[in-house]
Amino acid sequence: xxxxxxxxxxxxxxxxxxxxxxxxxxxxxxxxxxRPGPVTSPRLHVTLAGLDLPNPVGLAAGFDKxxxxxxxxxxxxxxxxxxxxxxxxxxxxNPRPRVFRLNRHGGVINRYGLNSDGAEAVAMRLAAxxxxxxxxxxxxxxxxxxxxxxxxxxDYAEVLRxxxxxxxxxxxxxxxxxxxxxxxxxxxxALWGVLTGVLQVRADLxxxxxxxxxxxxxxxxxxxxxxAEVAMESAxxxxxxxxxxxxxxxIEGRHASQQGGLSGRPLFARSTEVLATLYRLTDGxxxxxxxxxxxxxxxxxxxxxxxxxxxxxxxxxxWNGLSLVGRIADGLDTRLAADGFANVADAVGVGTR
Length: 353
Prior knowledge:
alpha/beta, TIM Barrel, 36% helix
């Protein structure tokens, strides 16, 4: 980490978390951040559901909700970038304050509530970004549903219809804890209903794109078995494990009782356990994306060894800055070489098989 980045991070942490996030997005929008491009090597290059990734370290949804900072993010070192969640109609989300740092635990609690500029506005930005040229890394779209929607499965399909022509993959978010009732869509019958509409829309897009589903870490083993079975029986291309947790086990301090989803270091163990369970349930035949508590090369490597074809991070950027992305990719390359793996794909699931 450079002295400039360290100073910038200290300044950002003096502001409330949402204001600091807005400043970070502004810096990316205006080109004030370094653009090293993705770290890559023959060991790091990996294929995820047909997507060519220069490295397996991606940006999780929630950082660039409105697709305003894609130019900076796609050249920041990530192997792929996911924007959103995006809802069909614009909505403000929950009242502020709605983001809380847990400095002692290396975690974040948020209850944004899917604040979104809406699908039409995001589609315009995505189209304008692509007119400049093909993105240097794949760009994904996190599909959301409006809080007041009477038909949430239709919402997901509508967002994909509007934005789908401009992205490389889509993730169905049925696991945010900040929209009442949303997690009920993770059940077998409800999930089939969501997938049916989304996959019908995908069939009408100009090109076929992978579709993933993002699940919660708070599911039982029986719930995970249902998700795995639906995923294997449908045309779903993979599972993102996991979203934030409502658990507060081991969390102390003045923000511990705040409502919302907990992410960062406290999520690592449970999200990795869910990831390994899904790898076993799917016999390693379905691509998995590991998210939750990744803060260095060791935690990223642990996700891969647990069954992740690729990983995503977000919360750790709060303390470590964007240079963390390159450091993780470099560290993965070193660990893969030390363990004798010619490619990251060879290490997927070796700790779970």
